Amino acid sequence: MSLDSPAVHLTGVRLVRDGRRVLDGVDLVVPRGAITAVLGPSGSGKSTLLAALTGELQPAAGRIEVLGQPLPRDKRALLQLRKGIGVLLQGNGLLTDLTVAENIALPLRTHTTLPGPVIDRLVAMKLHAVGLRAVGGAYPRELSGGMARRVALARALALDPPLMIYDEPLTGLDPIASGVIMSLIARLNASLGLTSIIVTHHVHETLPIADRAIVIANGRIVFSGTPGELQATTDPLVLQFLRGDPDGPIAFDAVPRDGLALEAPAFEEPA
Q1: Distance of alpha carbon 36 from alpha carbon 247, whole angstroms
Q2: Between the N and C ends of the chain, which has fewer C-beta atoms within 10 Å?
Q3: Angle 180-223-86 from CA coordinates, rounded to 5°
Q4: What span, in angstroms and rounded, lies between the C-alpha atoms of 213 and 242?
């Protein structure tokens, strides 16, 4: 990937699930080295966009480039590209019958031919990076929610991907654990030279560490700019989302409108 090329570039992308348009006319540039927040109410299409970025969902129209190349359709080429993309899942995805260290070692054992002692050393380094070096022998069920999320992050970083995607990283976490995770994301992005995309509806926790922000609503991108520009917006649609107002341009129902798939957004209660 060229130093000047974006990590992710979408042009005129239309995404369809079950015969319904979820997103349409999506143009997006994610700069290298930046943290980009993809914001929007639940059901707005954030997870669908994530599926497209990882190649799980092919676009019905438009072009997607990831890490300097068009998203391949060939399964082998797609698998190779995915090695450069780390994904932190909402539910962590840790295997309960494996220890913490074994979970983190799994992608290394699957995708590399490194000898066991080298893998063990790399696992220790990843655990140290997320502040959990002492828990390698524990099982996921023995960890708190915040610790399990950090272990999942260490596993996502196992292959040293240049691009990290976080899918609702704060789901189920208390305010302190949320602060730890967001601080960790920012620190790792800077220290490892990563590019990060945070897909979330947690606006106030995410904006302080983001370089760029986009807002998705009603099947399209309704805002793209800096966090400062977002907080200064007067757009009534964007303001409704930021304030969590039940009434406004974003429909609080599950009725498809203008051919776009809408779901009832789950607005958060005030802290």
Answers
A1: 28
A2: C
A3: 40
A4: 12
Residue 138 is classified by DSSP as: S
> Do 14 and 61 form a contact (C-beta atoms < 8 A)?
yes
Q: What are phi and psi of 149, to 5 degrees?
A: -65, -40
pLDDT at 219: 86
pLDDT average, residue stretch 179-183: 93
59-70 in b/e form (b: 16+ CB < 10 A) is beebebbbbeee
User: What stretches of 137-206 show up as alpha helix (H) in DSSP?
Assistant: 145-156, 175-191, 203-206
Residue of higher predicted confidence among 19 and 255 = 19
Establish how many alpha carbons lie within 13 A of residue 172's alpha carbon, considering only the half-sphere containing its beta carbon: 11
Could you read off the pLDDT of 209-261 as tens digits, one per residue? Answer: 999 999 998 888 999 999 999 989 888 888 888 887 676 677 655 444 444 44
Mean per-residue pLDDT of the chain: 87
How many contiguous H segments (helices) and E segments (strands) does the chain have?
9, 10
Sign of the dihedral defined by the CA atoms of residues 246, 17, 199, 142, in that order: positive
Sign of the torsion formed by the C-alpha atoms of 118, 123, 126 and 132: negative
End-to-end CA distance of the chain: 42
